[in-house]
Amino acid sequence: MSEITVVATIHPKPGHADALIREMQANAANVHNEPGCLHYTYHRGIDDPDAIVVIERWASEAALQDHAAAPHMAAFSARAQEHRDAPADVVRYEMVPIDGDPAKSHF
Q1: Res. 1: pLDDT tops 80
Q2: How far apart are the first and last CA of the chain?
Q3: Is it the case that residue 101 has pLDDT exceeding 90?
Q4: d(Cα 14, Cα 11) in Å, to the nearest integer?
């Protein structure tokens, strides 16, 4: 396995989505600067604004493990705890190559 895509569904407490997103935004540059971070974005539900999804792509399993162990992630977790209703649901994927427009089949 080489690159890893992660989809994490975040569960804010009712009425805490904006505060949680602010904490996430304050940590984004730290994550973007990590070795092996290829993609890291936040997405908010259109039909449910309290639904937050993080889509990540990492160069390797080692890069993902380093991310999970990074001190700034521990600090973020501590700050964000008051806004979370439950732990994130995290699912890891390996990209499947597809035919079509190369610019649209890889992110």
Answers
A1: no
A2: 17
A3: no
A4: 9
Do residues 58 and 38 lie in contact, with contact meaning Cβ atoms separated by under 8 Å?
yes
Going from the C-alpha of 91 to that of each of 7, 22, 40, the distances in angstroms are: 5, 23, 14
Report residue 100 as tokens: 């079509």
In the chain the domains, ranked by start, together with CATH numbers, are 4-104 (3.30.70.100)
**What Rg, from alpha-carbon coordinates, does the chain have?**
15
For residue 91, what are the contacts with CB-CB under 8 A and spacing of at least 6? Answer: 6, 7, 8
| C-beta separation of 100 from 14 below 8 A | no
Q: Encoding tokens for residue 78?
A: 């501590």
Mean pLDDT of 30-38: 97
Please give, one letter per residue, the 3-state secondary structure of the chain: CCCEEEEEEEEECCCCHHHHHHHHHHHHHHHHCCCCEEEEEEEECCCCCCCEEEEEEECCHHHHHHHHHCHHHHHHHHHHHHHEEEEEEEEEECCCCCCCCHHHCCC
